[in-house]
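Before going further, it is useful to explain how the protein records used in this thesis are read. An example of such a record is reproduced below.

***
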Amino acid sequence: MARAGLTTERVTEAAAELADAVGFENVTVAALARSFGVKEPSLYSHVKNLKDLRERVALLAAGEMADRIAAAVAGRSGVDALAAFANAYRDYALTHPGRYAATQVRHDPAVVAASPAFARHVELTHAMLRAYRLEEPDLTDAGRLLRSSFHGYVTLETNGVFTHTREIRASWERGVAALHFLLENWSAASVRAGNV
């Protein structure tokens, strides 16, 4: 492949495609160079190093995922918004496992803080949760619960751990409904738990 066709954007997109094909943890500059048919040094005018490359994949994926979630929840509220958010999250994770994995590892806090894509995730989550009349610190607590629940489910699903005959999507939908019930009753649950 001609070296002239390389750009930072193309290198990042190719790394994201590679992550989906072989797993994010297997993305290396050497593997990416092989996919382009070039030597490793040809890529270093587009990315600084492996850390930079992986951060770029994470930023790309975070933006794509935020776009999908935003489109899904537009014009919805309450349980409809929660279900749309959850389904867009799950669909992206299952469709793009390598890209999704890139968003689930710790990156340089300065890079994350400067990223509009990661900030949009927080904004989208908080906007959806405000329909449940939540304010801080409940917004953060509920947001962490949702992310943990969604991430745990899709990780187990991707790893093929759910072997029961019950249809996986049916369990997912029941789980989302249960989260909606919890969010609607968040204040009462906090009081009963002693607000700890």
Observations:
- The mean pLDDT is 92.
- The first helix runs from residue 8 to 22.
- DSSP finds ten helices and no strands in the chain.
- The two ends are 58 Å apart (CA to CA).
